[in-house]
Amino acid sequence: MLLRHLPWVLVGVAVACRPAECLRQSDCLGGEVCSLGTCTVPPADTDAGTGSGTSAATGGTQGLVGSGSGTGTGTGSSGGTAGSTAGATGAASGSFGSTGDTGTAGSDTGTGDTGGAVTTGPTSGTSSTSGASSSTTGTPPGDWL
Amino acid sequence: MIPAAVVPLAAGLWAGGVTGSLPPADKLTVTAAASSGTGVAVASPGGGTLSGRAPVFLRAEVGFIHPQARWLEFSPGIWMEVEGRVGFGIVPRLRALLPGRRFYPYATVSVPVVVAPYSLLGVEAGFGAAFTVHRHLALTLETTATTFFWGSDLMKGSILARFDAGLGVRVPF
Description:
The complex is a heterodimer of chains A (about 140) and B (about 170). Chain A has one helix at about 1-15, and strands spanning about 20, 35, 40, 50-60, 65-75, 105-115, 115-125. With about 140 residues, chain A is mainly β.
């Protein structure tokens, strides 16, 4: 009984459903993904985060008084798929007045993009200098996907 | 029939303990089977229903039948997709046989596990019939319905169903 009706069931299923280019990931070529029945190339996230920052230091050691400031830029990478972490890591470096100065970096600002959503946010960081340069790294807060 | 030396191994595999209540058997009836088929595949991503022809598959299995439960066969096997891609899986299967000499219908349940190069896990049920054409040869015709609910080969948020029909041969030893 079931065998007799099975072909018609299969035909009904085939007709009632929308034919699809793909039903499984292996139906698609390499580099493509099957989404909603269509093989598509996943959008490449070419955005890269950028950051910039300034630093300043005052004071001195070893009997020397100095001051200095600097600016720097940094780049971050964005993941190719939404949900991966991406970040704009700003780095600030600068030269200071004299060797042995210590100071605190100002701030970094970074922008990043994940999956097309641009997120900006300030980045704060600290740096200590030992010599004539400082560096600042930080991760911008915000609504990262 | 097979030598008693391999009985412990076969018995250990046999039905995964489903028939643990049966007494140990000196000899198990062993069968080999191979089949091929295709069918219709249906997926349901995002609330819609999509369909397509299911790739051709090959299946090979070895069956073990306990002498005191001749209606039940444990048939571990391998499964391969050979159309448009090559996939490989293992399919532990139980087959319930209705007695018959030249024609005997059967029903199956199994848990197909596709392991390479992608992964799929599902459940399968089917029925078929074997037509004896020789003392050591039977032709089989069977249909199966399979639902894959997990695996790297599925579309995101979708399950995959297959309705297959296959032709094959079955060789009792």
